[in-house]
From TrEMBL:
SUPFAM superfamilies: DNA-glycosylase. Gene3D superfamilies: Hypothetical protein, domain 2 (1.10.340.30). This is 3-methyladenine DNA glycosylase. It comes from Streptomyces angustmyceticus. It comes from the Bacteria. Transmembrane segments: none annotated. GO terms for cellular component: cytoplasm; protein-DNA complex.
Amino acid sequence: MPARTWRPPGPFDLHRTLGVLQRGPGDPAFAVRGGEVWRACRTPQGPGTLRLAARPSAGGVEAEAWGPGADWLLDHLPGLLGEFDEPAEFTARHRVVHEARRRHPGVRLARTGLVLESLIPSILEQKVTSDEAYRAWRLLLWRHGEAAPGPGERLRVMPDPRGWALIPSWEWHRAGVDAKRSDTILRAVRAARRMEEAARMDLADATRRLTALPGIGPWTAAETLQRTLGAPDAITVGDLHLPKIIGYALTGRRGTTDEEMLALLAPYEGQRHRAARLILLSGRVPPRRAPRFPVGDIARL
């Protein structure tokens, strides 16, 4: 059972740093148990389970790993926990951002180094509610993934590219995934090697690599590369809620567009994703006036 300890260069919040990797409640590949974070991953060396526990008294994060991918997971542990992130380069330009940073000094941007792990659930989230996408992710991993190695057997490792490609059409339908999204996932797994190469590119080149695939636009690429690269400037555009939240937090106005959001975040050029992340952590969101977006279920059609 390989293990190592990582010592952060400053304040560190394990749960908020890695929480963005969880795809909703009940994510089969991510769990928090007794304060520990567990991840089940498909690494280039195979499936692996990673257990992380913050030990402030020891000054670090203890990690243990199991399975063929254990060594890969531990080798990439510093990047996952934000060692290569540079939050000191960020300067808050708004009071709400300054206060969020002061209250959450230990949040760093995680870098998984894995593309498909974030790309596939991001595709599932296209044009549907979060609940629909999370349900699809859960069903597909439980039915077509594999048990995570070691004591993480209650977790599931997502299928390898061939496993995704072999999922029959009726299983996508049962999971509530329409043909447009399932076709995009199938194109992505057929080009898995080229997709994974984006983990070793800078943000601009990685974005071009992902968006060259039909069905992957700027929204999906940003949502993927925020996690894969820990990219501080990978701001999400085309989102239904983010412009409204950022506009309300920074100006108190409602109905902000993507263009207006980008103008508001212009002072954070190079760090726009980090600024947006802090604004979300501030909890300053516009009051809800309209009913929730209706949840569809194509599996019933």
